[in-house]
Amino acid sequence: MTALSSSEIAQRLEKLTELSLELSNNHDTPLLLENILRSAKSMTYADGGTLYRTSKDKKSLCFNISLNDTLNMYQGGVKGQAVDIPNIPLVDDNGVKNLSAVAAYAANYKLSVNIQDVYTVGVFNFSGTRNFDQQFNYHTKSLLTVPMHDHEGELIGVLQLINATDPETGEPCLFTETDQRFIEALASQAAIALTNQQLISQLENLFVSLVHLINIGIDEKSPHTGRHCQHVPELTMMLASAVHETRSGPLAHFVMTDKDRKELWMAGILHDCGKISTPVHVVEKSTKLETIFDRIHLLDTRFEILKRDAEIRMLKSKCLLYQADVKNEVLATELEHDLQTELTRIEEARQFLKKLNLGSERTSQEDLDRVAEIANWQWTSPDGTSSTFLSADEMENLSVRGGTLNAAERAIINNHIVTTIKMLEALPWPKHLQNVPEYAGGHHERMDGKGYPRGLHGEQMSVQAKIMAIADIFEALTAKDRPYKDGKTLTESLRILGSFALNGHIDPDLFDIFVRKKVYLTYAEKFMDRTQIDNVDESGIPGYRP
Q: How far is CA 185 from the centre of its chain?
């Protein structure tokens, strides 16, 4: 092959520049690798080429792509046939470098190898090449092998070209020194691009691992919250996909790219990360009187003291009768009857507070009045001090109308979203993830502006945040692992969610898609207990019109 003209060199430089731009912009690694090999072939007029990648243990070279124009061969790569070529070991079992295979030699010594005729070189073992030629009636002549290294000098692959071809005669010829220099430059640029992608991937994996680390911390504090953190992202993506596929109605414009999906998924995973700062006894509060322990047992003790004192009073009254030598059986019977009445009253009060403490039912005004009455009972502690039966704190907690949290504890729980926003807004998010704080931080906002922490109205919220709000509520309604409630059936959950769509709590258009596309059923079949999955009559769901 004659020396390259200045115009040909200029053309190669232009190709190299174009490839450099592509290497910078292309994030599809398989396609990038194939383009590298095809560009190297085109640049040197090579008939064939192979790209090797190092194995995970760095002990061998793996065939990644193999091309040959004459044989019309295309293995590996983006759309090629499966690679059925064995790996090339870089070292043997004793750790000795493999120098017989030219690709391994180039890799081990970090040197390019340019061979004019493989059949006249006795340094390397070309038995595999000869077998290939014999099998496919091919003749391998020239060979150019160039190692690829990252910024730390670590081997990441080997680029090998076969049979440079004279563009004028079409005959195989040698790879020139200019060819070698251009391919070395290309390999260097390709290695940089691949390394950058690997570093980006490693950083993304590290970040995802840190996110899961936060959820592990929440899991350790509360296994119930931990499952919530796993299921909400799943349901969020189910509903988001259903909205993406909707082609009519108010949300027909909503579409998501792969980057959008990754951003929403990340927001879903992190939506409750602020709970890592929430006290365990608040997150895990399963009864109204629970703090570090359930204080209902303290009330049990007081009730037992009241019973004991009632018995003591009755026995003292009997003793006075006997001391006065008054044998009045009727009066003694009345004393015992009064005792049983008092013990029954005390036991009924104990059972009432025990049930009320569970927080599983809505507390009525009648119940609150009875709590206030019992609170004013008097009891005497072991030190002889007489005081009201319930302390102010106990009465406040038992008077909670719904659930188990009092106002202060509810504020602590609600503050987790403020902490979540602070944590997420403190991070330097890349462009494709910059909406994570808004999506994750908006799942407790409401369409009517009565949500928290910012009191946003529907038009101020993104579709993604509204989607996550529905996912958060539905997961909480159906979850069976909460210490303070039982999981509701599908019908019960959808009716509650439907009422939320009517009263301005959630987006009614999203709720319509949630039901119409049966997102609830997809989620239920994957995560809910079979006993909760009943036959849903969609016509009876508030806020939904089939």
A: 41
* Residue-level pLDDT at 9: 65
pLDDT, tens digit, for every residue of 26-66? 567 788 888 888 888 988 899 999 999 999 888 999 989 99
Could you give the CA distance from residue 115 to residue 129 in angstroms, rounded to a whole number? Answer: 13
**Which pLDDT does position 491 carry in this prediction?**
94
Cα of first residue to Cα of last residue in the chain, in angstroms, is 75
Q: How many CA atoms lie within 13 A of 433 on its CB side?
A: 16
Contact 108, 99 (CB under 8 A): yes
CA atoms within 13 A on the CB side of 474: 34
Distance separating alpha carbons of residues 464 and 10, to the nearest angstrom? 50
HEC-encoded secondary structure of 446-462 = CCECCCCCCCCEHHHCC
- Identify the residue with better confidence: 425 or 85: 425
Residues counted in the chain: 546
Centre a 10 Å sphere on the Cβ of residue 18 and count the other Cβ atoms it contains. Answer: 11
Burial of 86 (0-12, 13-18, 19+ CB in 10 A): exposed
pLDDT attached to residue 18: 66
Check: pTM over 0.85? Answer yes or no: no
**Residues 6 or more apart from 492 whose CB is under 8 A from it?**
477
Taking a C-beta distance cutoff of 8 angstroms, is the pair 387, 379 a contact? yes
For 53, which DSSP code?
Answer: E
Task: Quick: pLDDT tens for 459-517.
Answer: 999 999 999 999 999 998 998 876 666 789 999 999 999 999 999 999 999 999 999 99
- Beta-bridge partners for 160: 50, 145
DSSP-based three-state secondary structure for 155: strand
Residues 6+ apart with CB under 8 A from 27: 197
Contact between 130 and 22 (Cβ < 8 Å): no
Residues 535 and 532: their CA atoms lie apart, in Å, by 10
For strands 378-380 and 386-388, give the pairing: antiparallel
Question: 490, 478 in Cβ contact below 8 A?
Answer: yes
